[in-house]
Structures are given as C-alpha cells and as structure tokens.
Amino acid sequence: MEELLKNLGINWKLLLAQIVNFAILLFLLKKLLYKPILKILEERRNKINEGLKRAEEIETKVNEIKKTREGILNRANQKAEDILVQARKLAEERKKEILSQAQEDGKELLKREEIAAIQQKEKIMTETKGEIANLIALVAGKLLKEKLSEDKERELAQEALSKL
C-alpha cells in the first residue's frame, strides 16, 4: 500500500501528520469556537422564548385589563342610568308636589277673595241700606211736610231696612 500511495504522489507520513493536524484543529475549533457559539445561540434562543412568553403574558394582562375596564365602564354607565332614572323620578315627584301646592294655594286664594268679595258686598249693602233709609226718611219727611224728630227718623229707617 505504501507503493500505491507513492505512485499517486502521496507521502503517507505527511498525510498522517495532516490528518492528525486536522483532527487537532477540529478538536480545538470545536472546543474553542463551536461550543461557545452554540452556547451563545442557545442563550439567544432562550431570551427570544422568554420574550415571547412575556409578550403573551402582557397580551393576556392587557386583555384582562380591557375586560375589567369594559366591566367598570358598563357598571358606571348602568349606575349613571340609574341615577338619571332616580333624578327623573324625583323631579316628577317634585313637580307633582309643586303643582299640588300651587293648586292648594290657588284654592286658598280663591276662598280668601270670595270671602273678601262677600264682605265687600255686605259692606256695600249695609251702606246702601243706610243711604236708602236716609232717602226714605227724607222722602217721607217731604211727603208729610213735617219735620220728624231724629228718633222718629231712625225708627222709620229701621222699619224700611227690616222690610228690605
């Protein structure tokens, strides 16, 4: 075999030295470069996976926050609607109270005005009766052509008033 390698122009000692050198170089490269590079790539892969997990966790938390916010907004809207309904109800009740009070005040004012009108009418009737009695007494006095005493005049006036 040695001759076959010589005929091909290959020196077996040199080939063996090159194979040993290549194996040593391969071993050194594997120890010094390949493993650290693989280690760096693995660390990078782990960081990327952690980043993805964190992104998923953040997305989950964001979705939870959105749901919570929507729930809070829905509750706030419902509460606002309830407050509006209560305010409308209270306003309606207050309106009824005010209208009722106004009606009562109007009725009371009307009664007072009626009483005042009746009193005014009675006052006018009393004054009119007095004036009519005086007129009757004057007319009667002129008709009788005698002068009546004051007592007689009053007596006639009282009679005339009682007849009215």
Write up what this structure looks like.
0% of the residues are buried. The model has no long low-confidence stretch (mean pLDDT 86). The chain has helices at 2-8, 12-144, 150-163. Helix 2 packs across helix 3. It is built from three helices and no strands. By secondary structure, the chain is mostly helical. The radius of gyration is 64 Å and the shape is rod-shaped.
Summarize this structure as a short list of keywords or feature phrases:
0% strand, rod-shaped, mainly alpha, single chain, 94% helix, 164 residues
Number of strands: 0
Number of helices: 3
Mean pLDDT figure: 86
Low-confidence stretches: none
- Secondary-structure class: mainly alpha
Instruction: Give the fraction of residues assigned to helices.
Output: over 70%
- Major β-sheet profile: none
